[in-house]
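seq as requested:
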Amino acid sequence: MDASLTAISRLIGNTGMHKLNLPFCLYAKLEFQNLFGSIKDRPALFILQRALEKGLIDQDTIIIESTSGNFGLALAGICRSMGIRFISVIDPNISRQKEQLLRLISYKVIKVTEKDETGGYLLSRIRTVKEFMAKTANSFNPNQYENHDNYLSYYYTLGSEICTSLDRLDYVFVSVSSCGTLIGLSRRLKEKFPSVRIVAVDIEGSMIFSDKIKTRKISGIGASMRSPLLDLAVFDDVLILSQEEIAEGCHELLMEQSLFLGPSSGAAYVGAKRILQSQAEPESVSLFIAPDHGVSYLDNVYSKEWLDKNVINIKEKHEVFE
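struct tokens:
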């Protein structure tokens, strides 16, 4: 198992940084370049490495995790290479492509269909995981919401890469879900760049920074609960965007910057433009995290029919989607 992790580790991390064509200096950290296609490769690898070192997992362990897609895909791929069984717990908001791939490479997929008290599915997924753990010996839950190794993976990898790549950094924009990226990245970047402004970007209806319940159709950003570790983050501002704004950001990235990215990237991009257009000095250097590729969202954020039905009437309101 150690050999498998060592081989995979060479293909995770050290992703590219792309400078956008804008009046101000804004870079995108392209995390879809990781082996399994997203930023979640980093904590998946780190958590499994640490669990192996601590003796928490072995060849017979069953690993189970609640996932909206990316973290589950990374865990499933790494577990398959290690010869360990992995169960992913998903819900109806997952993209069709991610569900298909999870069913292909996971040991088992459990799809939760009952909404929780917030109107979402996250808490129902977590309860399903806990029920499985209670009745299954030698099982392990990576638990990205409460596992310190989640944010430490970003501290030691993503944060260090950015610190090595840049000599100056004034603004960083991070979309949130489990908040591991925000925690680890903010702590590492503030060490090298004490005055950097870290901006957390969330979606309306998420319970991370708000108690206003609203149905969310866009996956990959926001959560139905606040991570108990969030107080460890060192951030400066919070932006909460509508689904409409996030979808528009995705299409703007594609048409104006030739970057085909997911909703969490679209949200961070919208947040960056909103703040930098009014606040950035000419010499400022800024960065947003682009967690995944857009291919998994062809049936939703990049589908005019889906957007018309679930988010906005694009034709009437936004020529950017034409």
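The longest helix spans residues 148-165.
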